[in-house]
Amino acid sequence: QAFVCLLLCLSRGSSCPPSCQCTERAGAKAVLCSARHLEEIPKDIPRDAVFLKLDANSITRIPSNAFRHLAHLEELDLSRNAIEKIDGAAFKGVAAALRTLDLSSNRIRSIPKEALLMLNAKLRLANNPWHCECALQEVLWEARLDPDSVQDITCHTAPRDEYVGKPLLQVLDAGVNFCSVRQRTTDVAMFVTMFGWFAMVIAYVVCYVRHNREDTRKHVEYLRSLPSTQHPAE
């Protein structure tokens, strides 16, 4: 019975998803799921997969721990999908072995920097409708980007219209710092908030003083209206 259970576990660990094709490439398992009309990442990808191609599908989201069980994964191709959202822990569990991650030609506007900065993999992020902001700038500075595709990381939207349509690298080379812009915006917001509280305190003090003056005036007028007491002369 133990032997049968072992065989079942091994077969489950190395089984191939019905929508994919599994093959050997240089002695390593390759799972090919390209152009299979997939809308999400298959749940039953073999644990010993080294190469995984999920390109040219209709995947819209990479959830947390999507590849956590794939500790041997070295190359992951998610290009030419419809990915719009990537969770912060999307690639948790594959950081150590992953060498190449292709996210090009999707619909990604922004991405949590913690999702990519934990990786040592070479990243391809070209041909996405990026919103140029501080988080994307930090990814460009700290992540390992594929030098052949970095020029195709273009600002689809940006805080200023003059950056739209330009490669992010070109904008940054011109001296733009999106992170300092965000810091200034934060500082201004804090200043406005502090000024608002200060104005409220001043308004309260003014109202308090006016109210006390009115009460004092009414009290004095009341005392003046009282009949005076005359003391007879001795």
Please characterize this protein's 3D structure.
There is one protein chain. This protein has 234 residues and is α/β, with parallel strands linked by helices. It has a domain at 16-129: Alpha-Beta Horseshoe (Leucine-rich repeat, LRR (right-handed beta-alpha superhelix)), CATH 3.80.10.10. The protein is 35% helix and 14% strand. It has 5 helices and 10 strands, in the order αβββββββαββαβαα. Helix 2 links the parallel strand 7 (100-102) and strand 8. Helix 3 packs antiparallel against helix 5 (178-225). Mean pLDDT is 83; it is low at 1-13 and 182-189. The chain crosses the membrane at residues 188-209. One of its GO terms (biological process) is signal transduction. Residues 1-15 form the signal peptide.
Q: Could you give the topology of this structure?
A:
Blueprint: H1 2-14, E1 21-25, E2 28-32, E3 49-53, E4 61-62, E5 75-77, E6 85-86, E7 100-102, H2 113-117, E8 122-124, E9 130-131, H3 134-142, E10 155-157, H4 168-173, H5 178-225
Parallel strand pairs: 2-3, 3-5, 4-6, 5-7, 7-8, 9-10
Antiparallel strand pairs: 1-2
